[in-house]
């Protein structure tokens, strides 16, 4: 299948390579000419055979909205746009309605897998019309992990459902990382425990708290014992805030996710071991920038 892919950053680049390895033809566009297959967005569209499918993988917010608006002026009836970034689900209605004016379809796809997705596959949550989802299924099947489709892919519902599902996924992720990080700090504070990394590694098999996130924390400690090279300053990229806002809107109690979000706010004032662990985890699974430890609390260069 042929696909246009807009945005060849950390995830987009790896997605292009995974799709090509599965035998799909991918024409990519990025502002960085060193990785781009096209000179411009218009050039990318010209290189695709109608009816076209274009996957957008750029930062959420104005970057995505502007890209979709540009595509609306370049694509034609029967084409399809898939937004695979971390857009807020409310933006999907705007994008869908804009493209529908010229007969262009729209799907929103929450994508999880970070920098490891090229090798392991990506968890996919899609919103939109069932016919359009089926049309793009060869792409989804190539990107998702091997195994039963339902264990790595979900048609979550109508337009907006994919990004809503990914938003909640990332809110849960906040809570899980915070729990591991607090456990790490408590172990590190106890005089009785003399080998914290060994304890965490022992938890990675057979225990009820084993997970990929725990594996990544062990990996981070192997690479930087004590996480001495990191500042405890932790960013939040939006989805955690949106999850808490939705919990308030629906009157759904979400104390763990809320506390994890507020802990990130506190991290910018207090350089704690727990927040260093959260910072390390974000860097491990998503390649997110981290703040290196500096001479003063909460400071440091972003890497």
UniProtKB/TrEMBL annotation:
GO molecular function, one term: NADP binding
InterPro entries in the cross-refs: 6-PGluconate_DH-like_C_sf, 6DGDH_YqeC, 6PGD_dom2, 6PGDH_C, 6PGDH_NADP-bd, 6PGdom_BS, NAD(P)-bd_dom_sf, Pgluconate_DH
Ranges where the 6-phosphogluconate dehydrogenase C-terminal domain occurs: 162-296
Gene3D superfamilies: N-(1-d-carboxylethyl)-l-norvaline Dehydrogenase, domain 2, NAD(P)-binding Rossmann-like Domain
SMART domains recorded: 6PGD
Keywords: Gluconate utilization, Oxidoreductase
GO BP annotations, alphabetical order: D-gluconate metabolic process; pentose-phosphate shunt
Family: Belongs to the 6-phosphogluconate dehydrogenase family.
NCBIfam families with a match to the protein in the record: gnd_rel, PRK09599.1
Protein's name in the database: 6-phosphogluconate dehydrogenase
Species this chain originates from: Actinokineospora iranica
């Amino acid at each position: 299948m042929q696909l246009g892919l807009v945005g060849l950053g950390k995830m987009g680049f790896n997605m292009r390579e995974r799709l090509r390895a599965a035998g799909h033809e991918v024409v990519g566009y990025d502002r960085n000419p060193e990785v781009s297959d096209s000179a411009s967005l218009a050039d990318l569209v010209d290189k695709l055979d109608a009816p076209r499918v274009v996957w957008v993988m750029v930062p959420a917010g104005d970057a995505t909205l502007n890209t979709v608006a540009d595509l609306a002026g370049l694509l034609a009836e029967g084409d399809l746009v898939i937004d695979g970034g971390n857009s807020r689900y409310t933006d999907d209605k705007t994008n869908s309605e804009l493209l529908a004016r010229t007969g262009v379809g729209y799907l929103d796809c929450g994508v999880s897998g970070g920098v490891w997705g090229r090798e392991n596959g990506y968890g996919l949550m899609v919103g939109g019309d069932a016919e359009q989802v089926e049309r793009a299924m060869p792409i989804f099947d190539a990107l998702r992990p091997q195994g039963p489709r339902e264990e790595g892919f979900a048609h979550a519902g109508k337009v907006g459902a994919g990004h809503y599902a990914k938003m909640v996924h990332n809110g849960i992720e906040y809570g899980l990382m915070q729990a591991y990080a607090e456990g790490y700090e408590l172990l590190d504070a106890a005089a009785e425990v003399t080998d914290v990394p060994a304890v965490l590694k022992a938890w990675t098999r057979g225990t009820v708290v084993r997970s990929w996130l725990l594996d990544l924390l062990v990996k981070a400690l192997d690479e930087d014992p004590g996480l001495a090279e990191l500042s405890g300053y932790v960013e939040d990229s939006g989805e955690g805030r949106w999850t808490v806002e939705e919990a308030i809107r629906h009157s759904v109690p979400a104390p763990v996710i809320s506390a994890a979000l507020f802990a990130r706010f506190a991290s910018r004032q207090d350089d704690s071991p727990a927040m260093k662990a959260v910072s390390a985890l974000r860097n491990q699974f998503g390649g997110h920038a981290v703040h290196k430890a500096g001479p003063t609390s909460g400071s440091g260069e972003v890497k």
